[in-house]
Write a structure and sequence with these properties.
Blueprint lengths: L7 H15 L7 E2 L1 H8 L3 H13 L3 E4 L2 E4 L4 H25 L2 H24 L4 H17 L4 H13 L1 H8 L2 H19 L3 H19 L6
Antiparallel strand pairs: 1-3, 2-3
Helix pairs in contact: 1-3, 2-3, 4-7, 4-10, 5-6, 5-9, 6-7, 6-8, 9-10
Length: 220
């Protein structure tokens, strides 16, 4: 198997993308090569490459003052969920037929880890929303990656990533975290039973519920 070489620019890109999506860099904030190279203690050449790629991916926008963080508007978020509500059920239904036993088991493991950190959060009163969000992402991405459609996968993975900040904020609410886990458990059971129709319908409802909850958060 051919392994892709991960360059320093790739690593910087991944870090900057994570920082933008998490809200570390606010919407309309100006980023430049000197600032990023200083913050990350790297030379400006790989930073320049990473910033150019982020601009191409619409995370940044060129202005007279430098590269501006585009961010996610309420309209963007509603558009993302409109796409998810239509396409994710199709991917889920395909996954119910396409996924092998090993991949299904990995989905189950991601769900169990979500449930584990939710229980710890309730028992300890400690904020594990970052962990819960990470395993929520893994649950969905495993379905996207194994649905048998590159088109669905390439559409859904970037959208799911771009809503990271808002999904985490939503999952901080105990009521939504609990509901989301129940929805994931139902989806997983449909997946194990390879019930494509049920899988698609459950995923549609899950995406709609996530949209309704996220658009009511204070962040929006």
């Amino acid at each position: 198997m051919e392994h892709k070489l991960v360059t320093l620019a790739d690593q910087i890109l991944e870090q900057l993308e994570k920082d933008i999506l998490s809200g570390k860099y606010a919407r309309d904030e100006i980023l430049n090569e000197q600032r990023i190279s200083t913050e990350l203690s790297v030379s400006r050449t790989p930073v320049r490459e990473a910033l150019k790629r982020l601009e191409q991916e619409h995370f940044l926008e060129e202005t007279s003052h430098g590269l501006k963080v585009v961010g996610i508007s309420r309209e963007d978020l509603l558009d993302f969920y409109a796409i998810r509500i239509r396409i994710e059920p199709l991917a889920a239904a395909r996954a119910a037929k396409a996924m092998n036993d090993e991949a299904i088991a990995q989905v189950g493991e991601a769900l169990e880890m979500q449930e584990y950190y939710f229980r710890k959060q309730e028992e300890e009163g400690t904020d594990y929303s970052e962990k819960i969000k990470d395993y929520d992402s893994r649950f969905h991405q495993l379905i996207y990656l194994n649905c048998g459609s590159n088109a669905y996968m390439d559409t859904l993975i970037p959208i799911h990533k771009k809503t990271t900040k808002y999904r985490k904020s939503s999952l901080k609410k105990t009521s939504r975290a609990r509901e989301s886990l129940k929805e994931h458990r139902d989806i997983y059971n449909a997946l194990k039973n390879r019930d494509a129709e049920m899988m698609g319908e459950l995923m549609r409802k899950h995406a709609a519920n996530a949209r309704d909850n996220i658009t009511q958060t204070d962040d929006m």
